[in-house]
Amino acid sequence: MAAGGSYSIVEYFGGDDGYRCGYCKHENGNFSHGEPMDSVHEEGIQPPSQEPLKIDHSEVQDITTSSDTDTTNSTAPTTPREDAAPVPAEKTPSATPKPGKGADPNRPQCRKAKDIRKERRLQKEQQKQQEAVSSSVNPAPKSSPNQPKSLEEFITESLPNDPLHRLEVRLVRSNPPSPQFKASFDASYQVYKLYQMAIHKDPPDKPTESQVRLVPVSFEDPDFLESYVQSAALYARYQMTIHGDAPSECGESQFKRFLCDSPLEAEMAPDGPDVGYGSFHQQYWLDGRIVAVGVLDILPSCVSSVYLYYHPDFSSLSLGTYSALREIAFTRQLQQQSPKLAYYYLGFYVHSCPKMRYKVMVDIKGQYRPSDLLCPETYTWVPIERCIPRLDISAYSRLNENAQTGDARALKELGRALVLHRRTVMPYAAYARKRKGSNDEKEVEQYASLVGQTCAERILLYRA
């Protein structure tokens, strides 16, 4: 139940028959129990005691590799720079020079450098005094053509009536961003990008914050609407190229149902992040077009990574790994605003599926640490380094090594599960008494066993 007293409402459909798996393509290898959700409040679907994948962000390893040589702590002996000063050329013997003619009487006599500096300083002081006297008579004197202009005169020099170019300098507030700053942001970024490429030799596709946009999944949001057609086309291309879907399997209606029609309600909480809770698309833009989209759910204690799709032309860039690291950094940013939002959840993990290896391994030298997998029998989180050996042996495995451990949140009292019947909230025990002869007890028990006692008492199961 949400803080405001609203319930999450779900329906339940058992999944005893297998169907085609989108990853391994097995025709009946995918089994799931579905819960279409009418409206879901974030607190209702995420009990605090059952937390998703936790990332200690201080220990997330860098995906970049370096050589074994630490150039910052080199122990090689240092020597004075040979190019610090010119080395005089080796002297060679020459003929005896002829006697000189002495000083040239037509040139002024040599003077010491300090005397010349002293004289120049006196001349400048006299010039300043003369300018001060003349300014009292004429406040706006014009410099003579032979005198250097002051800085103010130089930058405020009047232009002809029809100049070829005109420079305008504007001062706009950047934080908090003023309307003028927002209006000129795109143009300013393009100048910055050209500067970085030309002066600092940055690659054109160097990632920057301005290339990643977080837009709420709402057809009332102008940013989401503006990018919707491009995002849907990218999704279709990704599904057909990467997953081998037919065009009819990844059309606009499938895209909307899968990644846009979210049951999560957009909510703002006093102790929550600035963007609020709900479903979002994190778009990666490159040269004015979307090249990847990460679908995220932002919940009170975690960021849940729902799906990622990208342009197949960029498949060599390991965008699954890159987006995961970006999302970990994003979770850290949200945690600064809401300390209880401390987890990053990567969703399902299928050990035998190569496409999912990015969820646990960055490369052969490292992984995201610490990270955990949820035991399918005890519903406790187990460090992934203890899970991998078991999954290497068997595709399905109990991950918790303690045979005595059970599910602490297992269903104990079916009668306490809440249902919604004819717009009335009631415990299942009251519903069963009211509906004498009801034959749905097995279905309700299966549902409540899957969600656990805690969630069964917080979420409303819709009953027709």
What's the pLDDT, averaged over the residues?
Answer: 74
Q: How many beta strands in the DSSP annotation?
A: 14
As a percent range, the share of strand residues is 5-15%
According to CATH, the fold-level topology of the largest domain is Aminopeptidase
User: Helix proportion of residues, in percent?
Assistant: 25-40%
- When the domains are counted, the total is 3
* Spatial extent as radius of gyration: 36 Å
Helix vs. strand class: alpha+beta
CATH architecture identity of the largest domain: 3-Layer(aba) Sandwich
How does the overall form come out from the CA principal axes? elongated
Distance between the termini: 21 Å
H/E element string?
EEHHHHHEHHEEEHEEEEEHEEHHE
CATH level 1 name of the largest domain: Alpha Beta
Total helix count?
11
- Low-pLDDT runs: 47-95, 362-366
Q: Biggest sheet: strands, sense, closure?
A: 5 strands, mixed
**Which strand order does the major sheet show?**
2-1-14-12-13
Overview in brief:
The protein is α+β, with helices and mostly antiparallel strands and 464 residues long.
Question: Would you write up a description of this structure?
Answer:
It comes from Labeo rohita. GO terms for molecular function: arginyl-tRNA--protein transferase activity. Keywords: Acyltransferase, Transferase, Ubl conjugation pathway. It catalyses: an N-terminal L-alpha-aminoacyl-[protein] + L-arginyl-tRNA(Arg) = an N-terminal L-arginyl-L-aminoacyl-[protein] + tRNA(Arg) + H(+). Residues 231-375 form the N-end rule aminoacyl transferase C-terminal domain. With 464 residues, this protein is of the alpha+beta class. It has 3 domains: 1-50 and 410-464, no CATH class; 53-61 and 172-370, Aminopeptidase (3-Layer(aba) Sandwich), CATH 3.40.630; 373-408, no CATH class. 29% of the residues lie in helices and 14% in strands. It is built from 11 helices and 14 strands. It has helices spanning 42-45, 113-137, 151-155, 179-183, 185-199, 222-242, 252-260, 319-337, 384-393, 428-434, 441-456, and strands at residues 8-10, 37-39, 212-216, 278-286, 289-298, 302-310, 343-345, 361-363, 366-367, 372-374, 381-383, 418-421, 424-427, 459-463. The strands form 4 sheets. The chain has a 5-stranded mixed sheet. The longest helix has 25 residues, at 113-137. The radius of gyration is 36 Å and the shape is elongated. The model is unreliable at 47-95 and 362-366 (pLDDT under 50).
